[in-house]
Design goal:
about 290 residues; alpha/beta; five-stranded parallel sheet; 7 strands; two-stranded antiparallel sheet; about 55% helix; 13 helices
Length: about 290
């Protein structure tokens, strides 16, 4: 069971802590519990209730009308919503509840419906990425178990791989990209999406995946002579090792653009060799690749 502070509830639901307190005092909407050291906290059920109440409230239903409804009635009203106006918020919040409850069927329905409306790429950019940022908050505060985190990230990973598999393999004459994660780097979802983007715009991709030893990367690049190398650094190499790693990578492949992204880069005052190109996101990646 999760134990959420009111600030964590605010981040995860988008409802201000002040508003949650008003709902709590005026309508007895939720009732926080206390730890053995007398610290107030909210449960998984409180989180799911606030998520659903906020969705209904944002779609015009008054709190005073919702407070008397049962959990089942609230859930039914959420299902009946026309979510076009708040689609991203709706699907992110539904993914959070799917993760908490380990509900694969719910996850599948949410993603299928939204993908049918807007396409896979927008689902990733507008739902998966913000959702995974929220998951990061839950992870750092200890409010999801490894099982929950693995459950939901593996489902997202599967969706990425299916989407990539459905794209045609570009011909050998096209420009080539090697995509990989450095040794001991396991955060693969971002790289999978960049693989999807690269293949979709016509690059012939060689996807090496997680924790690739540097010597293996060199041998692959020597064999296939890529026009671009794409990587993501989140936890490995360590911040104090990133500069040396990227300098060596650029030195060993002097005529190949090295496209790199990842949260770890913000921790480094990076000196950029001429062929090193940091990028922010998928849109930025598209623009850079179009100039190569």
């Amino acid at each position: 069971m999760g134990q959420y502070s009111i600030k964590e509830l605010e981040v995860l639901t988008g409802i201000k802590a002040h508003t949650i307190r008003i709902w709590e005092k005026r309508y007895s909407l939720i009732s926080p519990k206390r730890t053995t050291t007398n610290i107030r906290f909210y449960s998984d059920e409180d989180l799911k209730k606030i998520i659903n109440i906020s969705l209904l409230n944002n779609n015009g239903l008054k709190i005073s009308k919702l407070v008397d409804l049962s959990i089942e009635e609230i859930s039914r009203k959420v299902i009946e919503l026309n979510v076009d106006e708040h689609a991203n918020e709706f699907h992110m919040n539904q993914l959070i509840t799917s993760m908490i409850d380990l509900e694969e069927e719910s996850f599948e329905k949410i993603l299928h419906d939204f993908t049918e409306k807007v396409g896979f790429e927008r689902v990733v950019v507008e739902v998966f990425y913000p959702f995974l940022q929220k998951i990061g908050i839950l992870w750092h505060t200890g409010n999801i178990s490894p099982a929950q985190e693995h459950f939901i990230t593996n489902l997202i990973r599967q969706k990425m791989m299916v989407a990539i598999d459905q794209l045609p393999i570009p011909p050998k004459k096209n420009k080539r990209a090697v995509l990989y994660l450095p040794e001991n780097e396991l955060h693969e979802i971002g790289l999978l999406f960049y693989h999807y983007i690269s293949r979709k715009i016509g690059l012939r991709t060689y996807y090496l995946g997680q924790t690739v030893p540097y010597i293996d990367l060199k041998s692959i690049c020597k064999l296939h002579k890529p026009d671009v190398i794409i990587t993501v650094i989140t936890t490995s190499p360590k911040p104090e090792e990133i500069q040396d790693y990227l300098t060596t990578l650029c030195h060993d492949h002097p005529n190949t653009p090295i496209l790199v992204t990842g949260s770890a880069l913000s921790k480094v005052n990076l000196k950029k060799p001429k062929n090193l190109i940091p990028f922010r996101d998928a849109g930025n990646l598209r623009k850079i690749i179009s100039t190569i």
